Amino acid sequence: MSATREAPAAPRDRVDERVARVGWWRRLLVRPELGSLIGAIVVLVFFAVLSERFRAPGGVANWLDPASTLGIMAVAVALLMIGGHFDLSAGVMTGTTALTVGIATSEWGWNIWAAIVLSLAVALLIGLFNGWLVTRTGLPSFIITLGSFLMLQGLNLGLTKAFTGTVIVGGIASAPGYDSAQKVFASSVEIGGTGFRITILWWVLATLLGTWVLLRTRFGNWVFATGGDDVAARNVGVPARRTTITLFMTTAGAAWFVGTTLAVRLTSVQANTGAGQELIYIVAAVIGGCLLTGGFGSAIGASLGALVFGMTQQGIVYLRWNADWFYFFLGAMLLLAVLTNRLVRRYAEAARR
Amino acid sequence: MTAAGTSAEAAPLLELRGIGKDYGSVIALDGISTTVRAGEVTCVLGDNGAGKSTLIKVLAGVHQPSRGELLLDGRPVTFAAPREALDAGIATVYQDLAMIPLMAIWRNFFLGSEPTTGWGPFRRFDSATAKDVTRRELAAMGIDIRDPDQPVGTLSGGERQSVAIARAVHFGARVLILDEPTSALGVKQAAVVLRYIAQARDRGLGVVFITHNPHHAHPVGDRFLLLNRGRSLGDFRKDEVTREELTTMMAGGDELTELAEELERPAAG
Question: Between B100, B116, B156, which is nearest A295 by CB?
């Protein structure tokens, strides 16, 4: 405890007794991702000890895969939550974008890249709509995006039926340009004889990008400020509205990426794809240390939350437990994470006074 | 009431001449005149509802005065928006401070005016400079913070006021308007803030110190503007008024004496 880095500051005797209390360990404790890091290690050790398949390279590739697509979404959702908002339409938006790719290729015969660009435009428009409505009306984003969630769910079903006559869009693999799209969104990379999904790479990049933006850019500072107190932020000249709209569009962009991955990988898309996933994204972000009230959180934490999710999901399968227990586990993990984060933050902040 | 143009001193930083403000048919402020000089503290004293907040809003550019003139360096000015007042060097530290409790001190210090380094997509928040400047500016004000990384929420009320003042000074304020900076503070914390007000004054800023506490105003003030129900009760230099007189005038003169008599115990026997 007495080992602090601040010692070589000015020789002011008055300072010492106070600085001594802010050791490196306390700095670690106030990091938002600490809870999720501990959680991830515990879950990893637990399943790795009990299951040989879990710790084998093939098993690792298997649980990293669901973690990766979830993680990309969780990073964007975490940024949005730090900015003080929710997006309940994020899950169903992955379905909307995947269906757009599917319909444009199989029904209209488009090149898949053109379909992907169209799908991006659709996603960004939805994000803009969400963000604009939230900043314009000042209503809770929970309600606004609940509305767009339900609307999108209806559109996904209705339009899919209108175009295809069924609730499934298939035949994406036969679209022109599919091979190159498959390389970008759905290929595997061989490492030591085991195929790892390329989405794992995109996930890592998304996490690094999210962290860099949050901690190292002006925009990141505005995200924290807008989520912490948007009136105060506006008073000192932070473009809070623009920040919020950008965050909603970022979430929509992530949904586009994940939706496109689904469409390209599965080559057929169900009309109900993505519904219900929005809560999983929020769970991952909260396990990662994001406050529901905004202004605090981390992109790395959200990624670790997604990792916990992926490991638990596959670990339960490997242990041949009934998969019904998965949600129980997830819920328990969420509560534990929230309680730990709360305790840790209180302790760390109170002791600093 | 003292006339506006006092004597042959240098032109005041900021001068108010017969400022008035109406909200519809309500006269919130009328005939307010005072001066703010560089290196001096002008205290605006008044009870609740005296028009202090309206006066701040006029000076900060939130509202435009309905009557009267505002002179900056002797030239008449109008502010259409808070940003214009800020650009002219008039910074306002509001009671709620415009700080984000969960964010680090250095992040708050530069919020909305972050220094950047690098170019194109690699343009980033220059955190090293920001931390360095924060520490230096706070030290220059004599504010001793433990660690610029700690969240503002862990600072005491007085320390937060001090950081807000240091921020205004750093971003080029010439006139600093402080909205009741001591009202929510205990005796010790208030003393700390008063010391920073004196610091800002000594650095050559013109300070407008709004308060309802004559005990805080008198030691640090050079000039006192008393408001009551939107009108000026007088604009005094320090040598023209004592603390007791300030207190009495603020309480509406005889009202306090009456109250004292009313509260006194009936003389026993």
Answer: B100
